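Consider the tokenized backbone below.
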């Protein structure tokens, strides 16, 4: 029983160290300001729309091709 208790304390200490180091790393992150965040969001939506359009075109093209073959 004593061995389990000491090993459990080590696990709790490791979890505590993990959260401390995670917090320290997050302080080093360069967070975007509001203008950058808006610009990045617009870029993400535009790229998603573009990729969706390309996939739709390919899907429609393959559908029409299969209709001709069948």
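A designed sequence for it:
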């Amino acid at each position: 029983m004593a061995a389990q208790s000491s090993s459990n304390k080590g696990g709790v200490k490791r979890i505590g160290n993990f959260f401390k180091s995670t917090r320290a790393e997050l302080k080093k992150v360069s967070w975007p300001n509001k203008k950058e965040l808006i610009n990045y969001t617009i870029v993400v939506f535009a790229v998603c729309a573009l990729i969706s359009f390309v996939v739709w075109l390919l899907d429609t093209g393959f559908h029409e091709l299969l209709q001709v073959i069948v």
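The longest helix spans residues 34-69.
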